[in-house]
Amino acid sequence: MAGITQRDEAPKFVSFLSDFGARDEFVGVCKAVILELAPEVVVIDVTHGVRPFDVRGGGLSLVRAIQYLPSGIVLAIVDPGVGTERRSVAVEVENGVLIGPDNGLLAPSVAMLGGAQRVFSLTNPDYQLKTHGATFAGRDVMAPAAGHLMAGIAIEKLGEQVDPSGLVPGLVALPQEGPGGVLVGEVLWVDRFGNAQLNIDPEMLEAHGVLLGDQIEVQVGGAIRIARWVTTYAEARPAELCILTDSSGLLSLVLDKESAAAHLGADAGIPVVIVPMTAAGALSVTEMPIALRPTTTKVDPK
């Protein structure tokens, strides 16, 4: 949301992310609710392909996109706790508003945008749809909030203001460094092409003397493979596992025109161990005395 600016008139864009998929009517209904309240709004579908119930994955998807979204409101819905005591919130940041469940989904993006300035719990029934059940807060609570804000309603009318420090943080895995330059991380995300993004940045490899073109040992699922550090997919030879810096600035395991994730049996959350071949003796990763699970840290949205 680098492009978000404050204006006198209501902004024109709602950027919408969810785990609703494309098979059911959920996405269309939420968009219809918004447009009924603010017909001039353009709704951008960031993605509705987040894995069902995957709050962590949805938060990572949103934070990858947030800096590119236009002026307006972000509506993010991955809500396995729908109908429980978890809150629906509108989070005001320096130049915008993010709407979603208070379950950690919004936290990485709020932090990237400089933290929450004000937070409102969406409790005012006057700005919600009447419903027969409590299982579709995206339609009944969050989409109406986005539509009313687009129509010019003050955010204060949506519900009570709450302490930003009470927002649920997001959990992001941090890589560990072990002896001999060993790096222990995990797969953050597998895209539709089968590229496996890691929570390891290229500077960590460079710090251990690894250069473009060098080989590294990679352990995924207990198997050891060799990967070469390249710049583009096309540099990989047929069926050659490679590692490169992706569009988010993180390392990804890739194959050219094939799915590295399928080849490796890798999925989001799977531990990955990298050993620079420049390490003395290039000890097998199975001999390294280090846990195959990265530590996690809370992303505080304050």
Task: Characterise the protein shown here.
With about 300 residues, the protein is of the alpha+beta class. It folds into two domains: about 15-170, Rossmann fold, CATH 3.40.50; about 170-300, Bacterial fluorinating enzyme like (Elongation Factor Tu (Ef-tu), domain 3), CATH 2.40.30. It contains six helices and 17 strands.
CATH topology of the largest domain: Rossmann fold
Fraction of helical residues: 10-25%
Overall geometry: elongated
In CATH's first tier, which class of the largest domain applies? Alpha Beta
- Rg calc: 22 Å
**Treating each run of at least 4 consecutive H or I residues as one helix, how many helices?**
6
List the helices and strands in order: EHEHEEEHEHEEEEEHEEEEHEE
CATH second-level architecture of the largest domain = 3-Layer(aba) Sandwich
| Secondary structure category | alpha+beta
What portion of residues belong to β-strands? 25-35%
Strand order of the largest sheet: 2-1-3-5-4-6-7
Main attributes of the structure:
single chain, about 300 residues, alpha+beta, Rossmann fold, Elongation Factor Tu (Ef-tu), domain 3, 2 domains, seven-stranded mixed β-sheet, seven-stranded mixed beta barrel, 6 helices, about 30% strand
Topology, pairings included?
Blueprint: E1 13-18, H1 26-37, E2 42-47, H2 55-65, E3 72-77, E4 88-93, E5 96-101, H3 107-112, E6 118-121, H4 137-150, E7 161-162, E8 170-174, E9 176-177, E10 183-190, E11 196-198, H5 202-206, E12 215-220, E13 223-229, E14 242-245, E15 251-254, H6 260-264, E16 271-276, E17 295-299
Parallel strand pairs: 1-2, 1-3, 3-5, 13-14
Antiparallel strand pairs: 4-5, 4-6, 6-7, 8-17, 9-10, 10-11, 10-16, 11-15, 12-13, 12-16, 14-15
Helix pairs in contact: 1-4
